[in-house]
Design goal:
alpha+beta, 3-stranded antiparallel sheet, 17 strands, disordered N terminus
Length: about 325
Amino acid sequence: MQRRRFLLAAAGMPFVLAAAPQSDPAVQSDVQSLRVLLGRGSAQPVDAESFLYEGRRYRGSFTSTPDGRVVSVVPLEAYLYSVVSREMPRSWPAEALRAQAIAARTYVLGRSNPNRDYDVVPSEADQVYTGIDAESPATTAAVDDTAGHVLRFGDEFAQIMYSSCCGGHTEASSDAWNGAPIAYLGGVTCTYCTDSPWYRWTESVALDRVRGAFADRIASIGTLQRIAVDQTDPSGRARFFRIEGDAGSVQIKAAEFRSKLGSRVVPSLLVRGVGLDAAQAQATIAIDGGGLGHGVGLCQWGARGLANSGGSARDILALYFPGTTVGHD
């Protein structure tokens, strides 16, 4: 993730007009606002503060790009009312929701790109956002209770990552994406996510699916006999898998292994073992692992567990982003 300057338009807050298109409606707004690319479709105003897009009601206003895509222009805090509820269950402890609100706010403040017609997209590529239908009293309260609070590392916004369950140890961003190490995203031990249904899991997949996914790579190794984790990183996540046959073997990057088999088949790369059962009529492999998602940064199930143990939002963020501080934007 690259850190980008978010061009805010708030009373008393400076922003850089020279870098932003003069037509940027978020810059022209009188409150902190951002632009969300909703996609192609039909939008109609409801009143001065909301509109309908594809059957859903959204706060704010909208514009259209030259190629016909709809862009929501929404106050930052109103955007978070929907995002926090979609990114974390509204029934979870208040301190976990507050931690999620601070993380989500920090994330979006680093995502503006004045060279584009929008700042974020409303999906897991950035943050899930579906408008007013997702809002709830609990998550709205979490946003209001943390209004203006962000996570900082020194004078900069912290780079925010989060996923559902780390399985007991978060992943270093440098190991996950082969980037430069980030001091507060180096991976930490987590003892709070054990209640997650994804803390430990076993997934079964037909061997034919494996053969099909890697047909070009395993054609020369003969009859497939074994699949194993070949190397792990310090968090225990697989770096490589080795597929062995009676005529040779091939090493597969772990990210490629997960991508080609699918994230539903391999929920995370914290894989404990791979078993091959070729005796059945339909040969299968059983993959044993833990966690759900990339595992970098905030472990959401861990946030729930720590909050249930009496931890505050600040305690949660300090655990998963060590060395950062909570401050005002």
